[in-house]
Amino acid sequence: MPLTATPPDKELTAAQRLAAFAAGYKPLEGIPDEFIGADGRPRPHWLRYLDLLTDIGEEDIGRRFAAADKHIKDSGVSYRVYGDASERTWPLSHVPLLIEADEWRDIAQGVEQRARLLEMVLEDVYGDGRLIAAGDLPAAAVTGCPDFLHPLYGIKPVGGKFLHVYAADLGRGPDGRWWVIGDRTQAPSGAGYALANRLVLSRAFPALYRDMNIERLAPFFQAFRSGLTSAAQRSNPRICLLTPGPLSETYFEQAYLARYLGFLLVEGGDLTMRDGKIHVRTIAGLKRADVIWRRIDSDFADPLELNARSRLGVPGLVEALRQDGVVLANALGSGVLEAPVMMSFMPKLCRKLLGEDLRLPNIATWWCGQESERKDVLAGIDRLAIAGAFGNPVLEFSSNQPVIGAALTPNEKARLSTAISRRGIDFVGQEVVNLSTTPIWSNGKLTPRPFVLRVYAARTQDGWTIMPGGFCRISDRADARAVSMGEGVQSADVWVGADKPVEMVTLLPTDETVRIRRIMGTLPSRAADNLFWLGRYLERAEATLRVIRCLAGRAIETDAQTANKGLTRSKLAGLLVSWHAAPEEDDDDGDSIDPLSVAALALHSEKEYGSALSLVRDARRAASVIRERLSPDAWRLIGDLNQALETNGATLTEAEVFDHADAAMRTIAAISGLAQENMNRGAGWRLFDTGRRVERAINVCRFARHFASRVAPADDLDVLLDLIDSQITYRSRYLMGVALAPVRDMVVLDPFNPRSVAFQTERLQEHLENLPVLSDDGMLEAPRRQLMKLAAEIATAVASTLDNDRILGFEKSLLRLADAIAARYFLQGPHVAHADKSTGLA
After folding, report:
1. What transmembrane ranges does the database entry give (predicted)?
2. Which of 162, 426, 490, 714 has the most other CB atoms within 10 Å of its CB?
């Protein structure tokens, strides 16, 4: 029925107001739609949403949608399609999926029931095996699945629970009921993106979100965190989120959740097994990991007993599980329940184990490993979808996706039938399900598109709690039984309406008995390594930008053709070449590149690893691995810096090179300012600042050797003061022009100049004194020992006798210091430094 039909007056008024948005909206033939009900009319809760939306005004709606898109981009919300080298900006649908409170209660009860059922099946499969013995679950349906891990058989998890988080992929069937189309028990993803969707959309439409009485997500995450805490064996447990690493398709989500929940984000190399327990490699030695929420597949979790090719897991993890040394969420081997073959037995298992029917039925599935079912599937292949029983490909027709029998050619159908007859154990037949549709915003109006809804359940001390919302993926294709986050797919926030206004809830603790802490806690060696190098890369980029700006500035000056100034410009250009910021010779004729070309290349070159652009990209890569430790503002600034240095091959004038370098330096100054003003003064900040100080001291030594040699002209000394930003200070101290000894003193030896080498060594001493030590014997560790010697040499040096050889000695000492810091704090291999036995493993 069209929206402009003649319902009662009140509905007609609402239809008229939304006519511009819903004009031409037509559900797919025979497919249920979330907006238009079975009676052909818009559902009441959608009318209320659109009525409130139209009150905002069309122009304001567009601005808010644009603001939401900008916020996603600025915040770095992203994902990666498998095989892609780079991340993609998260594709948020501007229109949420709306679900009424009564309907949601049915969904939540069905998901909760299924979570209880799957827990019981897992307990039996890896325990007594009564279901297999009784014939309720064929042994081949379990042991034939690659995700059934025999080394885990008989290992009961700490606390006796296999599943701590479960997700069900749902679709609305032709009868209007919600159906389970997939179980996610391995390492369910998407909850973090659901949270990001909510924060972005509720920020864009706060009044609309409030007036619709939408259920909050924070209580779910609070319950999940409390559930993991209660599962641990200590009162103040250390909870880790185990990630595959920054190349994971959902790495942003993992870092986002770790930050939001206060978990420690770790990779496999950050963990080690000692004495039957799992520990985190930190800068203070090994620290016990009580709970691990894994986001890697079970098979990759332990290269010793599972997949020997894995570089993502923790050697000895299975043995630690045998000794009850760690809580793992979810238990290894739980992915066996994700196999399509398991769906064929769920209705029967639910009646046997729970004594009731499934509240949410799953797709009708027939396993071809049973003779009668195989015959039925072969007889009805034209009306079924054929899938791999264990997630395996269906011959060469598709990669792990179901194949519609009716869509195959006669030859393809014959080949598939032969394969099923020969080895039916590898196949299941499933009912063909056409997903229901939900509105998206397209060209200023609503358009129906198929979707999949993922709903999450988290274990708590009191049972299972269900997220009031979920992760909704919307396809741009009419047929989308399995919607993955690829090209053309959007994600929508899921708004579950409440019967009354909803209280504001956050993850901030309200219990006055919470123990007060003033330190950030454990700093893994890998995170410390990346913080250190983030500081070094940013400082290295700043030094390069200073040289570029100085070179471009002198090219602009009207009297720049004097002999001394021309020589100084050549030295600046030579310094950039020696730093591999620009090539030494022109690619075409072999002639030396003029100073302006050197400056432009050093600014934007993608080929030279020492260019400002390359260094900023290195900084961004280091930052991406520790995203959970950076503020959104810092991450945004790093992204802005990278974008600003990309010129897409444009030719720049002297003034443009100067302006680009100057603007980039201001952005780096903003990043440094955020670090100084906003970062907690814990070990992470100290390692970040240590990287900056070490790199700055090295660069200043190099500047001094190039421009403050024994025969340096006044122009060189003037450039040196520019490079270390000390012109004003020098002029205020010395009324005469630049002279060698005062400049050397200010650049290298002056502890009051924040750009001098001496100042950096003093700050470095403060940092190393406040970083943790591994032993309590009172002996100095190698970095502090080396730094104290260097600081003493600088403090006792005299400017009048300081020469390039001595400055080079300082530079080499600083390079050795950087290596010593890396060896002490960042070692990740089997020879990682440990705390003394006497200090214990906290």
Report:
1. none
2. 162
